[in-house]
Specification:
It contains 16 helices and 13 strands. Helix 13 links the parallel strand 8 and strand 9. It is α/β, with parallel strands linked by helices. The protein is about 45% helix and about 15% strand.
Length: about 375
């Protein structure tokens, strides 16, 4: 079996094996033999092939590792303390001064220096009349050791997000109402604080929780009562509902009564949004029925339709205020009781401590504080139930 695998090895594999054998032939004390006699690569390749026929796969792995890496000077033998010892002796030129700076005894420092010398097979620092001077090998290692220590230090430092310097892409899931009501304000605020930051918008849908969990989306803004555990929620603001009618509606002027509500033709949005479901529940509780004469796939065309027809619509209050300004619509309080609903921001626990993510959430929370409803602290969902 091993013969067949060896014989049918890819050409690149055979070439790498011969290269490894050549390296081993010139390495003192290699695993395939030691001594000063010359060994041809062909002989070693035959030796490796013969060993492959008799050695289990784990043994072959060890053999290959020994050929490639030689002695036992592995990463397991290096820790950051050894690198710091090297760096301090290089800086101070003194074992005792380095020991004092690191808060250890001189004997302990000498012990670590001995380990360094063994590890690199070089004296590294030699005592002279002016102090401990570096060898050529130590000078070669100096920059690498400093870079390694800096890299380790960077791992331990808390991440920092600098809005003014960031070109990060933030991805938000939103409803079409939010496109009209919230997105312009969000864009302007982010552009002021972080000019190079970019924004991408996804529509809220069944795949939204998965997008947030995977990191494809950073936040979701809206009302999502059926999220699994592992998500955070923060209320941004709450909304009432209003009824809107065209400026030249023939029957609705100063007031809008229950009779008007039941008599007039309504524009609805389908598939039903959270806000429309709340309206439907309120209508049923009031014992009324409304005549839905037009269903739209979104709110985007609603304002123009209401302005140019004698239809009416019941919409969230912030949307009603905006379309009233845009199209001159009349805004009325609903003639039935409709409970307000919360607009929240949601995010997954995986990104709760991400500095850029936290900055985005805080920016949005501050942005919507002026809606008149206090922003709530974040809450984490611990079950499937809506909190």
């Amino acid at each position: 079996m091993f013969q067949q695998l060896d014989r049918h090895a890819f050409p690149g594999q055979r070439q790498r094996g011969r290269q490894a054998a050549d390296a081993a032939a010139h390495h003192d004390g290699g695993c395939l033999g030691s001594g000063s006699h010359d060994v041809s690569s062909g002989e070693i390749w035959r030796h490796v092939s013969e060993r492959a026929r008799l050695t289990p796969w784990s043994g072959i792995d060890r053999l290959n590792r020994n050929i490639r890496y030689g002695s036992s000077k592995d990463l397991e033998n290096i820790d950051t303390k050894l690198l710091r010892v090297f760096d301090e002796i290089r800086r101070t030129g003194s074992v005792s001064a380095a020991a004092e700076r690191m808060g250890m005894s001189q004997s302990t420092m000498s012990f670590f220096l001995a380990k360094l010398r063994e590890l690199f097979d070089d004296p590294l620092f030699v005592r002279t009349t002016t102090g401990m001077e570096p060898t050529a090998r130590a000078l070669e290692l100096e920059g690498r050791v400093a870079a390694a220590l800096a890299a380790v230090q960077a791992l331990l430092e808390p991440p920092v997000f600098l809005p003014a310097a960031s070109d990060r892409v933030f991805r938000l899931c939103m409803t079409d109402i939010s496109h009209i009501v919230l997105l312009p304000r969000i864009v302007n605020r982010l552009r002021d604080a972080a000019p190079a930051v970019r924004i991408e918008i996804f529509r809220i849908g069944p795949d939204t929780p998965g997008r947030m969990e995977s990191g494809e989306a950073d936040l979701s803004i809206g009302f999502m009562p059926q999220l699994d555990a592992g998500f955070y929620r923060q209320r941004l603001f709450e909304q009432d509902f209003v009824c809107v009618a065209g400026p030249r509606h023939p029957r609705i002027r100063r007031t809008f009564t229950r009779v008007d509500f039941a008599r007039e033709g309504h524009v609805d949005v389908s598939p039903s949004t959270t806000s429309q479901l709340i309206v439907e529940q309120a209508i049923r509780r009031a014992g009324l029925e409304r005549q839905v004469v037009l269903r739209l796939p979104s709110y985007l065309g609603l304002a123009a339709i209401i302005a140019q027809t004698d239809f009416v619509a019941t919409v969230p209050s912030l949307l009603g205020e905006i379309v009233a300004r845009q199209e001159g619509l009349r805004v009325h309080a609903p003639p039935i009781a409709i409970e307000r609903y919360a607009v929240n921001q949601y995010w997954h626990a995986r990104f709760h401590r991400d500095p850029g993510h936290a900055w985005l959430r805080q920016t949005l929370a501050e942005l919507f504080m002026d809606t008149g409803v206090a922003v709530s602290p974040p809450r984490r969902r611990s079950s499937r139930r809506a909190d």
